[in-house]
Structures are given as C-alpha cells and as structure tokens.
Amino acid sequence: MEPQAKIETKDLNLFYGTFHALTDVNIRIPARAVTAIIGPSGCGKSTLLRCFNRMNDLVEHTQVTGRIAIDDQNILEPQTDLIALRRKVGMVFQRPNVFSLSIYNNLKFGLRIHGMLSRRNEIRQSVRTGLEQVGLWDDLKDKLSANAHTLTLEQQQRLCIARVLILRPDIILLDEPCSALDPIATLRVEELLRVLCKDYTLVIVTHNMQQAARVSDFTGFMYLGRLVEFADTQKIFTNPAEQLTEDYIRGSFG
Ligand SMILES: Nc1ncnc2c1ncn2[C@@H]1O[C@H](COP(=O)(O)OP(=O)(O)OP(=O)(O)O)[C@@H](O)[C@H]1O
Ligand SMILES: [Mg+2]
C-alpha cells in the first residue's frame, strides 16, 4: 500500500464566480518532503495552494467542490476550525509580509492571535527557537527590539518563516517565496527549505523551474486549472509522462 498522503484532494474544483479556476484536481502530497507546483502564469498554482488552508474562503463568490483531506480529515467540512487549520497549515508569501513592529513582537504577534501566549520566559524561548530554526538567532539576538523593516529582504523572509514555525505547524505553504530575493539569498533560503522538510511538509509554488528542480522531491505541473502530471521531481525533469509537461519544461511555452 502507498504511504498515506499528508494532503490529498479528490475531484477538487474551484470557481471564482463563473470562472472555473481548478478542474478535477487529484493530488497526493507526501509528508516530510518538498513538493513543488509549477506551471505558467494563471494556471491555478496559488489558487490550489490557498485551498490547503482554506484561504480562498476570504475571496468572495468562491465555490469549491470535491474533497481536500489533511491527515485524512476533510477540511472542506463546515465544522472545520479555520483558526486551528491555519495554525497547522502555515503560509509564506511572495513579498515578506513583516509587520512594522520589533523583530520580537513580529513573532509574539502570531502567538497572540493563536492564543498561544504563555509566560514571558516561554515566549522568549519560542522566539529564540524560531529564530534559530531559520538561522537568524546569532545575527539578531542583540537587536530583537529593532523594527523588522530594518532587516534585509532575505532576513525578513526568514522572519516570516520563523513566525509560521513558532506556531508549530505540520505543513508550510510557500507561494513564490524567493521571487523578491537575489540569487544568493534564494539559494540560502532553498537550503533552509531542505533542512525544514525533515520535520515539516512543504509545498512551494514557483515560476522558476531550476528552483523546483533544486529544492523539491516531488513536482506537480499545472496547466489551465488542471494538474497535468505529478511525479518525482527527477522524473518530471528528465522523463515526464505527458507531452505537455515535456513542452513546458523544454521552454516551448509559458
Ligand atoms: N479572486 C479572483 N477572482 C477571479 N479570478 C481569479 C481570482 N484569483 C485568481 N483568479 C484567476 O484564476 C486563475 C488562476 O489564478 P492563480 O493566481 O491561482 O494562478 P497562478 O498559477 O498562481 O498564476 P501566477 O503564476 O501568475 O501567480 C487566473 O486566471 C486568475 O486570473
Ligand atoms: Mg500565483
């Protein structure tokens, strides 16, 4: 038997009003690995990613059908606790969305909205662990009260990842997390993702095929709202099953 998927969709369809943005998506995302979602602009990558923590609920006139199971629980059921879901399935965006607060309070903020504030020394310990996990502690430990906007973009993106990590998620969704970064910073963040996937399930949307090839274990190729192919990354990039995948990775379109 195949190992249980961490995330599994069954006939997932999504409409924005009358626009059919996702069509019959069936995907199985393995635990503790990096899965990349690639495909040309507008093919539904971000839409699919946002399904996994029901962020599309925030978009008006969105209709979703099918099933999205996380650990075999259908998160589309109405009784789903969305706050708990978004703690368990964290998200990192294209532009680092740090708040105009101190580094320390950026991290404490997430704990507060999730009701995870405890005694002060426990908060300090969580902040330290979060910053250690993203490789920022040594650089920032003496300036935790500095405004997060004074950090470099790479540090800001790492801080955003730390802000997700201290909520102790299982899954981290990353929507083009390196597109605001220079190539060196991009490689360093990719290294971080390789470390994190030992403990977390990562799903990364990227425009950059080289990035998908470097960082992911599995790759899904999407086109016009459909998942065309899903396989080991090496297979997708060397011997894809579908002609459309082959054309895309050879640069024939998109
Ligand atoms: N809120 C919305 N209302 C209506 N249509 C939307 C909305 N959000 C996205 N779309 C449309 O759904 C389709 C998929 O969008 P999505 O953002 O998921 O694509 P994407 O693959 O992430 O593209 P990109 O690579 O440009 O980020 C596009 O045609 C887009 O215009
Ligand atoms: Mg997108």
Structural summary, described in words:
The protein has 254 residues and is an alpha/beta fold. The chain has a domain at 7-100 and 169-249: 3-Layer(aba) Sandwich (Rossmann fold), CATH 3.40.50. The chain has 10 helices and 11 strands. A 6-stranded mixed sheet has the order 7-8-9-4-10-11, sandwiched between helices. Strands 1, 2, 3, 5 and 6 form a 5-stranded antiparallel sheet that branches. Strand 5 (62-70) and strand 6 (73-74) form a beta hairpin. The structure holds adenosine-5'-triphosphate (ATP) and magnesium ion. Adenosine-5'-triphosphate binds at residues 16, 19, 21, 39, 41-47, 59, 207.
Number of helices: 10
Distance between the termini: 36 Å
CATH topology of the domain at 7-100 and 169-249, anyone? Rossmann fold
The level 1 CATH classification of the domain at 7-100 and 169-249 is: Alpha Beta
C-alpha Rg, in Å?
A: 18 Å
> If classified by CATH, what would the architecture of the domain at 7-100 and 169-249 be?
3-Layer(aba) Sandwich
Structural class by helix and strand composition = alpha/beta
Estimate the global geometry from the Cα principal axes.
globular
Fourth CATH level, the homologous superfamily of the domain at 7-100 and 169-249: P-loop containing nucleotide triphosphate hydrolases
Which small compounds were modeled alongside the protein?
adenosine-5'-triphosphate, magnesium ion
Give the helix proportion (percent range): 25-40%
Report the average pLDDT across residues. Answer: 95
Strand arrangement across the biggest beta sheet: 7-8-9-4-10-11
One letter per element, helices H and strands E, the order comes to EEEEHEEHEHHHHEHEHEEHH
Biggest pleated sheet:
6 strands, mixed
Count of strand segments: 11
